[in-house]
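Support case: pyridoxal-5'-phosphate complex. Customer-provided input:
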Amino acid sequence: MANTAQRLRVAEGQGERAPLPKRTVPSMQTVWPHMLFPRPAATAPLVFPFDQPHLRYRYFARNAVWDAVELLGLAGKKVLLPAYHHGVELEALLAAGARPVFFRVDSQMRCDFEDARSKAADAAALYVIHYAGFPQDMEAARSLARELGVPLVEDCALALLSRDGDKPLGSTGDVSVYCLYKTLPVPNGGLLLARGEVAGKLSSLPDVSPAPLTSTTSHLIGSLLSNLELRTGDLGRRVRQALRESSRRFVRRAKIERVSTGTQHFDLGAVQLGMSAASHLVLRNQNYAEIVERRRRNYFLLYAMLRDVAPPVTGELKPGVCPLFYPMAVEDKAGAMARLLARGVETVDFWRLRHPALPLGAFPEVDQLRETVLELPVHQDLSPADAEHVAVCTRELLA
Ligand SMILES: Cc1ncc(COP(=O)(O)O)c(C=O)c1O
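Agent response - structure generated as follows:
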């Protein structure tokens, strides 16, 4: 079933004549107004990784990757990195002076630690990525790192709140990195978690600088408008479109420079940025257990309706896993995205772009993943009816 990236042809012309949907199911979770009101910190129980002692909050996860190189002294040294990566973490490693060496990831997004071992001569660190919340085999990773005598960097940018059974992802690495805005409705936020000997060196890193207020405000407004559309449908969409246009004009005229999140490239000019106070506030106003529960519920709803035509490329959703999205394989990603959007379903083209440092054809399974994997939303804002709508539209598309 899910162990092959099944290639599905998008039915020509499907959905194009369908009437415009009343509202769009957003690809990302949105901020709800109540999340912007302070409440006593004690009422929000801390969960992993926020309950850990040695943390450093950053504007982006890429800044935390930069910090990891500094903490572990990896400049000029070889780092074993999965061939399947976003590209911006690779840029952060390169900019910080590390020398990445790629190892294989299979068609189900599993790191091949045997391949890593075969390339490990002189390696100074092992870097592992959990894709879409699905855990890698961290026992194998730890044992390879131990054997090589190198630190383990656990990249949980796509795996906040996820667990392998009872074990939180990010609790094995010497250093772990999280992106907060991919799972939570914060306007910005990345996190570095350090353990063991490395933890003592956290204070040696330079102070972070404050997140720019204009960027934080504009991300928050965008997310609030998305939320309005989610709740009110057509009306919200019109308000959102109108405000979007005028705010674009305003930003252009006032020459406001936004530090955008979710971009493809590492910017040295933003490397010192920390996380905004607004993000800290939103973090305190989350029900983390409910987020995990809803994401799993929505994932299972999609799975139940799609497993015969579009099984997830990652295989089974094990206990504890908090899925970031439902990864389906489709032959014509751009066509599928456009047709789903026409039916009111926003999707994300997962990692199509290959960083030029990785030669095309060196890892065929990874090339295939880049070409085919589409993110279907399962986030916490989706009701069961929304998830069903996503599944129905996807089935129609593949009919
Ligand atoms: C695996 C991985 N690591 C790190 C990052 C960097 O995250 P950020 O956008 O917060 O810098 C990303 C971004 O998509 C990612 O996918």
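The pocket of pyridoxal-5'-phosphate is lined by residues 60-62, 85-86, 88-89, 129, 155, 157-158, 179, 190, 261-262 (CB under 6 Å).

Case will auto-close in a few days if no follow-up is received.
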